[in-house]
Each structure stands twice: as structure tokens, then as C-alpha cells.
Specification:
alpha+beta, SH3 type barrels, 2 domains, five-stranded antiparallel beta sheet
């Protein structure tokens, strides 16, 4: 059964998730270049769908395989659509209104579903989401997880906002997955 899965991946370049015993990363994604009864050679892809080297690993160290998951379908989408994830789409306008306060640019994204915002709090926690509302002291975010699914809503204090990113690669990745997930409904 396992060798059938490996052979099919080799022939069709179908992505497989590889979960290894004792690995901090635990999970790799790619398709089979070649294999034998002892080890497997994998064309590895990063979480952004970019070729990320050739991985050679013992089959006995693979805890389990994954196939046809939403995550793997997302990686395949990124492989096929590299421009979407690699091209920054947000550009600053020339006016200087965003310099009036630290949160001015942040607040301009209230209700905006076109761009996911990544932000870090003073506690070094990082979140991704859509800005729902903002007042003098607090802001609310619809948080988006690594698979592009809505994780929930959270309210934070503006004073805890350390820094924020607009349209970085991880934001684009989660936004694309979020759009794909919502198109299924």
C-alpha cells in the first residue's frame, strides 16, 4: 500500500505530506523522485509552493503519509500560481496621513477584506487577520489560521501593538487559502 502511494506520486507528481518521527518540523511536502525499500527521494516544496531542495529520508523514519488534504491542495495551488504569492500587491500612496500616528495606517484597513494584516504584540505573539474595528484603546481582528480558516475573533489593546505587516508573503498565503476555502461554501 505504501509503495503504491509512492509509485503514484512518482508517476503523477502528486504531492504527499511526510510526517517523520522525532523531527521538530515533523512535516515535509513534496512528490517522489525515486525510492526503494529503504529510502525515498523527495522533491521538497516550502509552505509557499517553492522548490526547496531534494530530501532523502529513510522510509522507516516516516511516521505516516498524508494525501489529498486541504493543505496539500493549497501548496499545489501555490506551485501552479507563483505570481500570486510572490508578488506584493499593496503599495503605499504618496500622502503622509499614515505618519500622523503609529496606528493610522493600521486603522485604514478596518473592514478591508482584500489584505490580511500580520501583527506582533509586545508579548512577541504574532497574529494574522482582518481588522474588524478599532477605537482609541482597542482593536478587533478576525483571526485567520495557517490553513486560511477563520480561527475566531479577538480584541487587543492598541498599546500592546508592537509592529504590523501589510501584504507580506505569509499574509498573501493565508489570504489566498482563505479565499479558496470560502469559494467552496
Amino acid at each position: 500500500m505504501i509503495f503504491d502511494l509512492l509509485q503514484k506520486s512518482k508517476e503523477t507528481k502528486n504531492l504527499i505530506g511526510f510526517n517523520f518521527y522525532g523531527s521538530e518540523n515533523g512535516f515535509y511536502c513534496g512528490y517522489i523522485l525515486d525510492y526503494n525499500e529503504t529510502f525515498v527521494i523527495i522533491q521538497h516544496y516550502s509552505k509557499f509552493g517553492v522548490n526547496d531542495g531534494i530530501l532523502v529520508h529513510k522510509i522507516s523514519d516516516i511516521q505516516y503519509f498524508e494525501k489529498e488534504t486541504g493543505y496539500l491542495k493549497g501548496i499545489q495551488y501555490f506551485i501552479n500560481n507563483q505570481n500570486e504569492i510572490n508578488s506584493q500587491t499593496f503599495l503605499m500612496n504618496k500622502n503622509s496621513e499614515h505618519l500622523e500616528s503609529f496606528s493610522n495606517l493600521f486603522e485604514s484597513f478596518i473592514g478591508n477584506k482584500d489584505y490580511l494584516i500580520k501583527f506582533e504584540l509586545t508579548s512577541d505573539e504574532i497574529y494574522f487577520g482582518f481588522i474588524e474595528w478599532c477605537d482609541e484603546d482597542n482593536f478587533s481582528v478576525i483571526t485567520i489560521d495557517v490553513e486560511g480558516l477563520i480561527d475566531g475573533k479577538a480584541i487587543f489593546k492598541l498599546e500592546d501593538l508592537k509592529l504590523y505587516w501589510i501584504d507580506d508573503q505569509e499574509c498573501r498565503k493565508r489570504k489566498i487559502l482563505h479565499t479558496i476555502n470560502n469559494s467552496k461554501n
